[in-house]
From TrEMBL:
InterPro entries: ICL/PEPM (IPR039556), Isocitrate_lyase_ph_CS (IPR018523), Pyrv/PenolPyrv_kinase-like_dom (IPR015813), Pyrv_kinase-like_dom_sf (IPR040442). This is Methylisocitrate lyase. Keywords: Lyase. It is an enzyme of class 4 (lyase). Its EC number is 4.1.3.30. SUPFAM superfamilies: Phosphoenolpyruvate/pyruvate domain. One of its GO terms (molecular function) is methylisocitrate lyase activity. Transmembrane segments: none annotated.
Amino acid sequence: MNPVATAATGAAGKRAAFRAGLASGRIQRLPGAFNPLVAALIQELGFEGVYVSGAVLSAELALPDIGLTTLTEVTERGRQIARVTDLPVLIDADTGFGEPMNAARTVSLLEDAGLAGCHLEDQVNPKRCGHLDGKAVVPVAEMVRRVRAAVSARRDPNFVVCARTDARGTEGLAAAIDRAKAYADAGADLIFTEALADAAEFAKFRASVDIPLLANMTEFGKSALLPAAELESLG
């Protein structure tokens, strides 16, 4: 790492690398970083990308993960992390911080900050951690508007818009799959399959959805912790 701690790769290059990774047929491992130092270590250890978790950012600010962080706080932390790593950085943008128009502005600011992509979820605003009980999701049509607004706001077509569905815990697996298909049709590049129970559920999701899937492996969550090799074999 150079003494100024600035990435040698520009944002456009990192976004292109993220796109290429998603299309490669190989699993992309994005460990979570809550600050620039951790992101630098992730690169040094040879991973394919960096993830900025909303839950971890909330925890570092001594806040519960219930939608209390602001767009300004999330964007600035994302900028700090993206600045120091040559890896693509995917950031948690909660529900887009408001209505579809807010989701569009969120994408613009995150793109300006050098991020490679973000994920938006279909929970009501304010949201709850995806592995907590008591969640509620918006109607499909509302989330479709959220996704379309986000996609239309990006200027770099390689900026990845990931749509997360929390419907598994509230409406069941079949409904979550139907939602994922609708979000893909709305222009999402990647689907975040939050809080699936086990490998069998990931396999059902994979068989039903054509675009890449994100699996959230987090301690103390509702999903079984599956090794990267097993997730890759599931597709």
